[in-house]
Specification:
The protein is globular, with a radius of gyration of 21 Å. The chain is built from 10 helices and 12 strands. The chain is about 40% helix and about 15% strand. Strand 4, helix 6 and strand 5 form a beta-alpha-beta unit. It binds pyridoxal-5'-phosphate. Pyridoxal-5'-phosphate binds next to helix 3. The site of pyridoxal-5'-phosphate has 13 residues, from helix 3.
């Protein structure tokens, strides 16, 4: 097989995928535009504040928009939430008291273990605060809902569900599947609060977890909802009481959501959300291209090019460290920023394995931009790829990287 032909086939797959996807993108765009109009966004909302940030109408209106778009009673969308990990930890820590139990479906995203404190004493963690913690060893393929109902008890305060695979080689949960898990959990224990880690999931489908019964959810603005423009931040959306507690913990009780200057350019957060449905579509198209091309070369990918998607993550099983590193370095090489830099594995805060990351991005570390990362973990050397802001960039970067790998003799064309 010649590479040009494989690239052509992968590009066809990407186009077919795009045609099927248009309806979801239009629906999501319409949802965002309706919220902008309902909340009467005007030029004043795009201005910034300083100091305490009292009466910051840009910030407050944006939170109303987030609540409407994601179908929650309330939203906390702040640049003072420094990352997805912070948003998720904040959502959990603010709603758990000593003696309460948190149950995770499966194992959480790597960086959350320190916030939970389940892998060793960690100052300030949930376990140190006296929260009890368990994981349900859920089989995401078999999808036996008895594992859910048997995994929680009347004492479980919060059931946490992670939509995306994160750094686990497992199927990402479709919103419909999240709904079935929630229904099972709540029919057995109506009082249980369901939290969803929605990182990488926003706008991939035409519904979000709150529409299928989740009580609240959280995510990062340098992923999907920031649309590639938001320079930082995180959000929590859902039930009013749960969001209010998160706000009181982010700042402090009494001042909660009333403070927090926006300092920077509010336009980036508004325009980022406006762009997000389309940008997520670009990331997905590149992911499908990557899946199709690497499948064509005989590599195992998750999801496959034809599979339904519920997040923007494309898993690639390299099976060899040199291949993993070469691909990562290629993605960096074909980036608009820091293209001359060579990514190497390093001890990243919050992760157990060393992590290698290619992110030649405009916003540092933004994984809604073309990027890939992996815990350097034998024997599978799985890599997780994010397709970026432009399908054209995705195609060029992946195609050129694979060509370089073939030229170096790392991949053979049989
Ligand atoms: C990225 C991610 C996080 C953590 O977000 P950061 O912004 O990297 O801290 C948590 N959960 C999932 C599923 C993620 O993909």
């Amino acid at each position: 097989m010649n590479l040009d032909k494989l690239i052509e086939n992968a590009a066809e797959k990407m186009q077919e995928f795009g045609l099927k996807r248009t309806a979801v993108e239009e629906a999501n765009f319409a949802k965002v535009l309706a919220a902008f109009r309902a909340c009467r966004v005007s030029e004043i909302n795009l201005k910034t504040t300083s100091g305490y940030g009292y009466g910051d109408v840009g910030r407050d209106t944006l939170e109303e928009i987030y609540a409407q778009v994601f179908c929650g009673e309330a939203a906390l969308m702040r640049q003072q939430i420094v990352s997805g990990t912070h948003a998720i930890a904040l959502a959990l820590m603010s709603n758990l008291l000593p003696g309460d139990e948190l149950v995770y479906l499966g194992t959480p995203y790597d960086t959350l273990h320190k916030a939970i404190g389940d892998l060793g004493a960690e100052p300030g963690s949930l376990l140190e605060m006296g929260v009890k913690y368990r994981e349900i060893d859920f089989d995401f393929e078999q999808f036996d809902l008895r594992q859910v109902t048997e995994g929680i008890t009347a004492d479980t305060k919060i059931l946490a569900i992670q939509r995306s695979k994160g750094y686990n080689w497992r199927k990402s949960l479709a919103v419909e599947e999240i709904g079935r898990i929630i229904q099972a959990a709540k029919s057995a224990y109506p009082e249980v609060i369901v939290f969803v880690d929605n990182c990488y999931g926003e706008f991939v489908e035409d519904r979000e977890p709150l529409e299928v019964g989740a009580d609240y959810m959280a995510g990062s603005l340098i992923k999907n909802p920031g649309g590639g423009l938001a320079p930082c931040g995180g959000y929590i959306v859902g039930r009013q009481d749960l969001v209010d507690r998160a706000a009181a913990r982010l700042t402090c009780p009494g001042i909660a959501k009333e403070v927090g200057a926006s300092l920077g350019d509010q336009r980036l957060f508004y325009q980022g959300l406006y762009m997000a449905p389309q940008i997520v579509g670009e990331a997905l198209r590149s992911a499908v291209f990557a899946a199709a091309l690497l499948q064509g070369l005989g590599f195992e990918v998750l999801p496959t090019a034809d599979a339904e998607r519920s997040d923007i993550i494309q898993g690639i099983k390299w099976g060899r460290e040199d291949l993993l590193l070469a691909f990562c370095q290629g993605i960096q090489k074909y980036s608009p920023v820091d293209s001359f830099v060579t990514p190497l594995p390093w001890d990243m805060p919050g992760y157990t394995n060393q992590v290698v990351m290619a992110a030649g991005t405009f916003v540092a570390g933004a994984s809604i931009e073309l990027s890939c990362d992996a815990p350097v973990a034998p024997p599978d050397y799985n890599l997780y790829f994010q397709g970026g802001l432009s399908r054209y960039h995705g195609k060029v970067a992946i195609g050129s990287t694979v060509r370089d790998m073939i030229d170096k003799g790392l991949i053979s064309l049989e």
